[in-house]
Every structure is written in structure tokens, then in C-alpha cells.
Amino acid sequence: MGGGFNAAVMNGSTNLWGDPLLFFEPESEHSAASVCEGFAVAGGRITNFTSGKTAMYMMGSWFLGSVPKATADDFGSFMTPTDDGSLVVPFAVGGSMAISAKTPAPDKATAFAEAWSLDPANYKALIEGDGAFPMLKGKSLADYNVTVSPTFTQSFTYVSDQNNKVSAIGWATNDDAMPGSLNNDFYAAAQALFNTNDVAGQMTKLDQSWATATK
After folding, report:
1. Exposure on the CB side of residue 132, measured as CA atoms within 13 A
2. What count of Cα atoms within 13 Å lies in the side-chain half-sphere of residue 130?
3. Where are the domains of the chain?
4. I need a surface site. Which of 45, 73, 102, 120 has the fewest CB within 10 A?
5. pLDDT recorded at residue 45
6. DSSP letter for each residue of the chain
7. How far apart are CA 99 and CA 111, in angstroms?
8. Is 131 exposed, middle or buried (0-12, 13-18, 19+ CB in 10 A)?
């Protein structure tokens, strides 16, 4: 298969959208991963989706800031389907300022963090540019004077409505501080779910890992 694809590249073939094909022959799986990461960092995944070359793009709320304004009505969002059809929203509150416990001036650091965190202009930039969901109590989206896409408004209801929310862990919240071997076990389970439909079995393994790590 690889040889046939290489031949197509050498013959100047294009994909369905007329783009020239590219062929990489990395020396190992690590090099292959580097190619994929480079493609992603360069925006390949996002531009393929926003230009209509990909039907679906599984991504968190931070993608919402990348929805093109000119074609915003062409996009929508939905949660990953569950076996019983119920709505389950993986959710974590973040985005606040963190202060180092070793700072030589905790009072000044705290004052800066509070000023930055309460500045409406900063919230506006985070909401419009990074797709951040404002979760301050007593505030509505209109209070931030933002311009967002219909997809953002639709997606925001998943976290603002009363529904079944579960705490997101692991890479979704930049959490690599889980106890014991749970980091490795967590990622191993995530990879295993691509090769098996035994979700309950993988969850049981994680429960056992958690019990061992937290004794």
C-alpha cells in the first residue's frame, strides 16, 4: 500500500480536492508521530475541517475560536454519543491565574492575578479567541459584550444547562499529576479503547489502578 501511494505521488496525483499528495517515509514510529504532530501544529487538521475537507472534527471547546466567521453557519456541535443515548458532558473549570508558592512577593502576585482575572477585556479575548466558556455565577454571555458564532452559543448550552456532567481528567485538563502509575494506566486505557469494545473492562482496570495508587 505504501509503495502504491509513493508511486501516485511520483506521478503527480492529487486527492479528491485537487491537492498534491505528500509522501513521507520515516525511519520509525517515533518519526511517524513527529510528522503527524508537525502537520497538526501547522494547522493541517483545523484547516482541513474548516475548509470542508473533513466531515467531523473531535475537539474541545477551545476550537470554537477558530470557526471562520464567513462560514460560521456551516458548523455545529454535538456531544460524543453514549450507549444509552443519554447526554454526558465531560467538564472541567479552568483558566484562572496560578501563583507559585515560592514567589517572593505573594501579595503583589495575588493583586496582579485578581486584576487580570477580573478584567472584562481579558474575558472578552478568551471567549472570542479561545472559545472559553465564562462560568462566573450571576453572569450571562451577553454581560461580556462578545461576538461569537452560533456554534459557540449552541455549545455553551452543554455546560450552562442542567445535565449530567462528569469531571474531565488527564490530558484534557493538563493533569499529569495523578498518583502512582495512573498516568501510564490512563493513557494505556485510552489507546486500548481504539482496539476493543470492552469499555467496562478498561474502567475496571483503572479502578484497580486507582485503588492501588491511593492506598
Report:
1. 18
2. 10
3. 169-215
4. 102
5. 64
6. -HHHHHHHHHTT-B-TTSPBP-----SSHHHHHHHHHHHHHTTHHHHHHHTTS-S-----GGGGGGS-GGGGGG----PPP-TT---EEEE---------TT-S-HHHHHHHHHHHHT-HHHHHHHHHHH-PPP--TT--GGGGT----HHHHHHHHHHHSSSEEEE--GGGGT----STTHHHHHHHHHHHTTT---HHHHHHHHHHHHHHHT-
7. 11
8. buried
136 within 8 A of 127, measured Cβ to Cβ: no
The per-residue pLDDT for 156 is 92
The Cα–Cα gap between 139 and 189 comes to: 38
- Contact between 67 and 152 (Cβ < 8 Å): yes
Determine the residue type at 20.
P
- Cell 493541517 locates to 44
User: How many other C-beta atoms are found inside a 10 Å radius of the C-beta of residue 181?
Assistant: 12
Q: How far apart are CA 55 and CA 35, in angstroms?
A: 22
Return the C-alpha cell found at 136.
Answer: 462566573
- Angstrom distance (rounded) from CA 169 to CA 186: 9
Residues 48-93 have pLDDT tens digits of: 788 887 888 888 888 888 888 888 888 999 998 888 989 998 887 7
